[in-house]
């Protein structure tokens, strides 16, 4: 259930018309960012000085925030400056109305839930729709949790197969909380948003120490949830083509399938990882060997990548092993390693995020140590591909329907082959209409020296092909430098269709074979309590684990002892490429052999 009506925007000032005063109305992305930054800095100054309406209190605002206002007026057209000032007042008034009506017992709703037979007329105030609290309809009352389809193994070496959670899936109503309340999506969203509001202006939420109550979490550990192998068969196929461009296109196919959990499911908040926690698993997938070059390479690729989950056909199954460990807690950093010796390919990298709440969305960018995914194709003379991450935005807080959008530029490079890809994810419309569009160019260059960051700056003589499409739908490729919109339909190659694809389930160690600091076992008590809707108990268990981590950290500090990861050589590597320790290599080798046994560590970070 959403928070604000989309059908009444009378309080919002109309968007300004184009002006010629040196500002801009429809700037390119970099120019818009300058305007947005100027606006945000000015509004922060107003907040510090208790100024709401900078139009009515113009003199006071100019005295208190002279430098910020000058920057704002220089970066933005005057019509946009006026627009933003008025919209700030409107949003403040709307927020005050929301608080007032909520205090009266009203429940926010949107136009999609305002009607219906027998529904009481909602109350409208400044673009917000409210009704007095009533039980939600059956289809709105289900608690959203990931599906956890786990099958008990028949032997200690068989492993257990678990599906990647689908946070958008419904579950049946279970027992209520001890205090008699069962949180639905709308109440979870209100609570979550009220917490996020405290972090407006905080540079990096991810670096702040705060703990969420269990009812706001999805029952899955972060290390299990966060990975880039939703379709591992596209990963192992990267090196199949005999031609360099074909391998780069294979890398792109992997890129567009690595985050299917966000395409077909809703964003969720897993448990925070603790120091020394680790997760290991394996996938067994079909070998979808095939090139994208020539006539034989132009079939609809959904037929080649939409293999049965974890299954095989006549081809021999290919094993992909995965190991990740939380190597640092402040800042939160985890190292990961992927290996598929059957296909001579591996990957590694660090997961570290920086997050900032803007008031309407959370902007997520790679952290300092997260320099992308490094893929090495060993049987192709150790070709290395570096795939950098774009900025993503978690939006939908005001409407109560979370979604992920991407608006940034990222790069895929292979220095050995001299091929580079620039991918540009287009911004959503000004009024929030998500496009999910992506465009790109593949071209030859000296990767070590090339500094090009914009598609339009790439010379046609270097272009090998162009990319266009929707990253949550279909992505197309065309050979040569011709603008994609001018390419005949018959010459466009379907690079990937993600519509029929779903994340493939992992094979994990049986619970009795897992160590105490292994993710599933470490969080098992919390997971069981959340599954049974015993949220108070889950929160208590979660806080106990977090307190143990603080105690261990205090002990190490008193002993002047630095934490040393078990499976990776360093907490972080400056080049962004973690290296396995001998024990880490042993874990990977054992995964290939379907062996799960591990010795207990000599030191725990949170036990």
Automatic annotation (TrEMBL):
The keyword Mitochondrion applies. Gene3D superfamilies: 2.40.160.120, 3.30.70.3490, Cytochrome c oxidase, subunit VIb. The keyword Nucleus applies. GO terms for molecular function: sterol binding. Residues 172-186 have a biased composition (Basic and acidic residues). Residues 535-562 form a coiled coil. One of its GO terms (cellular component) is nucleus. Residues 145-165 have a biased composition (Low complexity). Keywords: Coiled coil, Cytoplasm, Disulfide bond, Mitochondrion, Nucleus. It comes from the Eukaryota. It is found in: Cytoplasm; Mitochondrion intermembrane space; Nucleus. Pfam families: COX6B, Oxysterol_BP. InterPro entries: COX6B-like, CX6/COA6-like_sf, OSBP_sf, Oxysterol-bd, Oxysterol-bd_CS. Residues 1-26, 102-186 are annotated as: Disordered. Residues 1-11 have a biased composition (Polar residues). Belongs to the cytochrome c oxidase subunit 6B family. Belongs to the OSBP family. This is Oxysterol-binding protein. The lineage of its organism: Eukaryota, Fungi, Dikarya, Ascomycota, Pezizomycotina.
